[in-house]
Backbone:
């Protein structure tokens, strides 16, 4: 057995407009790397954090990777882990920055075990880890990071991968603006109309049907958010301009990525996604926000051992 392993976990888009806390996709172009060493003392230590975010807690219980590894260590008594994190995803970006560390650490550590745990177990441990940062357990970020592509993230049981039409691409623009997940979730408090739940459920059904039937018309009809987006849009400067810019470029749909402030759009080709991404970045620029641009296949690769 190896004593050291490194793993990469990609960024992700949570919710994907229609599936709050239950649907997510992997995103190419950014991610976290975890280097894990197996120890024999049964303890878990976070040894170092580097990269775009370094001022994070080193105490294992308070760190997403550390908490996830504590859970794994309980399943394999006598085995401990020491982890170093190289952060490639900004926190508060809506790109799964807290989830990626937990997933990368778990994938690396699992590769060091004589009896690796199952995907379902990894998924549960990753949700426990991310809760250290977000304050709640939800799988819409960790599930696509583990499996790649578009994934249904259930409360219990293994995540389910969804096929997507060939050529489907995503444009994501991350403005240089921090929106903490806890603040974004607080904006969702309050009552919702039953009619809105019906409309949102219809959108989710249309998107899933469009994916399984390879029907872009269904994706265009379904890819909209009437529950979460209206309450979070005010937290993101220039959001409506950015969304309109994407739709004007022919995007199938556009909404907030995860808790925000990043905004994503689905497009039927890479060329259209590149045009949409440029227009979206320009729209953020109109409200004095610089941004980072990512163009990715929706069927992007998931976490992997390096």
Residues:
């Amino acid at each position: 057995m190896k004593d050291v392993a490194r793993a990469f976990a990609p960024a992700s888009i949570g919710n994907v407009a229609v599936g709050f806390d239950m649907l997510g996709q992997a995103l190419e172009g950014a991610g976290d790397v975890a280097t894990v060493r197996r120890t024999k003392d049964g303890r878990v230590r976070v040894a170092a954090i580097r990269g775009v975010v370094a001022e994070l807690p080193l105490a294992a219980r308070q760190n997403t990777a550390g908490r996830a590894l504590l859970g794994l260590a309980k399943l394999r008594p006598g085995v401990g882990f020491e982890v170093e994190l190289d952060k490639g995803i900004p926190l508060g970006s809506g790109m799964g920055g807290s989830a990626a560390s937990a997933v990368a650490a778990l994938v690396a550590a699992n590769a060091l075990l004589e009896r690796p745990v199952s995907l379902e177990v990894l998924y549960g441990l990753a949700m426990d880890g991310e809760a250290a940062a977000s304050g709640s357990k939800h799988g819409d970020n960790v599930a696509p990071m583990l499996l790649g592509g578009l994934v249904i993230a259930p409360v219990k049981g293994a995540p389910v991968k969804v096929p997507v039409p060939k050529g489907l691409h995503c444009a994501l623009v991350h403005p240089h603006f921090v929106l903490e997940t806890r603040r974004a979730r607080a904006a969702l408090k309050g009552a919702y109309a039953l009619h809105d739940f019906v409309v949102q459920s219809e959108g989710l059904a249309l998107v899933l049907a469009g994916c399984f039937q390879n029907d872009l018309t269904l994706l265009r009809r379904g890819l909209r958010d009437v529950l979460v987006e209206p309450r979070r849009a005010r937290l993101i400067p220039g959001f409506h301009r950015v969304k309109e810019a994407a739709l004007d470029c022919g995007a199938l749909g556009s909404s907030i990525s995860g808790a925000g402030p990043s905004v994503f759009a689905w497009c039927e080709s890479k060329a259209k996604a590149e045009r949409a991404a440029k227009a979206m970045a320009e729209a953020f620029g109109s409200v004095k926000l610089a941004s980072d641009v990512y163009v990715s296949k929706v069927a992007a690769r998931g976490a992997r051992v390096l």
In short: The mean pLDDT is 96. The first helix runs from residue 64 to 75.
